Description:
By secondary structure, the chain is α+β, with helices and mostly antiparallel strands. It has helices at residues 3-24, 30-34, 40-70, 99-109, 114-125, 141-144, 148-154, 159-162, 175-178, 273-276, 296-312, 330-338, 340-343, 408-423, 427-439; strands at 73-78, 90-95, 163-168, 171-172, 180-184, 187-192, 214-220, 224-229, 244-247, 252-260, 262-264, 368-377, 388-392, 399-404. It has a domain at 3-71 and 409-439. The protein is built from 15 helices and 14 strands. The strands form three sheets. It has a six-stranded mixed β-sheet. Strands 5-6-2-8-9 form a five-stranded antiparallel β-sheet. Strand 3 and strand 4 form a beta hairpin. The longest helix has 31 residues, at 40-70.
Amino acid sequence: MTVWPKLKEHTELLYRRFKHTCGNLTVHGPSFLARKDVHFVYKVIYFLIYVQIWIAAVATIRRYYNHYQENTIRFTTRTDYLEWNTTFASVTVCEIANVEKIWMIGNEVSNDNFEKFDRFIGDIAFFSGTCYTCLATCDFKPICSSDFTQTASMFRTPCKDFFLSCKWNGRPIDCCKQFKPLATEYGTCFSINNKNVAGTQIPLVATSNRRIPGELEITTSQDYEAFIHSPEDVPFWNMEYDRRIRIVYGSQATVTFTIMDVVNEPEVSLIAPETRQCRFSDETPENILAFKHYSYSVCITQCRIDAQLRMCNCTHHLSPIQFKDRVCDFEGLKCLTNNYKTLGKLKVPGTNEAGLVCNCLPSCIEPDYNVISKKLSEPEKFLRARPSSFIMGSRPYQRVTRQVARTTLDLVVAMGNCFGLCFGGSLLSIAEVVYYLCFKRWKYVKDK
């Protein structure tokens, strides 16, 4: 029976505190509602207007917050190109099916059923997502149960035998000092100007006082596929075809491209990656194990490995060495082949086609590479090694600058302006409410 009187007493005390606080606040609204000399009808009308103002203020602040989240970044173009130093593109070469070596080693291993062995070794050594010869019964028991990573390395050419000569702007360079091994989905390739290789590289910088700012010329002893990409990128199965070219032994290729650099203002790094919709190279997520620098291609490579592990409980044998304990056996390669429609391509948003769903943000610093021309000549009658050239056709005359259009401070200022406009309040008003409710010593006098 004593609970209700105490509850009533506390309720009345809270009401008096609330009324006293409203009557003494400096913000517009509460003090008017707490006045005794205002008629009740006027208070109701004023309260309805006050509620509408609150709704409008909250909607405005929410709209501005959404605008801040979606349009934080803006892009501008710069043309003050006289002082620019542009890094040459990273060129990665990956050996493709070495038929001669397969025949040579294959004759030593299997003379009876060489045609099937030839196709099987091609699928293993130069795996690119499918191994259709693995779907049949294995006729080569020792190799089918062996380490596929080691088998693939037997049929791949080391750097010292792969490159015959290399030139940068007409000057000879040491191929294997400049082209470092790079782990990719195609196995170990050789890449120049790449940040994800082991050790250090001296970057090739385009020269502004030459007619052709940068020209890389290479001559190889094997067939290969060349990729043009940013220094943070790695070749992957879904890379655009205009930035790759297949060159067989004896043919000659010339690829001409231009570069448009992307630079970022210092404030951009203070914005969360999800808000600015890109990542810097040092913002590598924890789940990416094989590469130290982030790029879109690095993220896609990790996403595909995760999908392979999820669907087949293993990953293909040409994956980076960090996954050597999860490499597929013969049955695992069958699983990867059967699921290639999902694992081999990226799902296009809004379609029902199978494919990988990878929430990968682009790189904040990746330049825009525009391939102007690709010329490929057929091998001559008398087969011989011929050089291929990768030419930066002209120096950049434009740069794209990523700027912060709205900072967190801008958001705070906009919210403060809205609060001040609608209610005449500020941060001191919030402190005032806390003071009256929590710290003021209360003494109430009954009305006479």
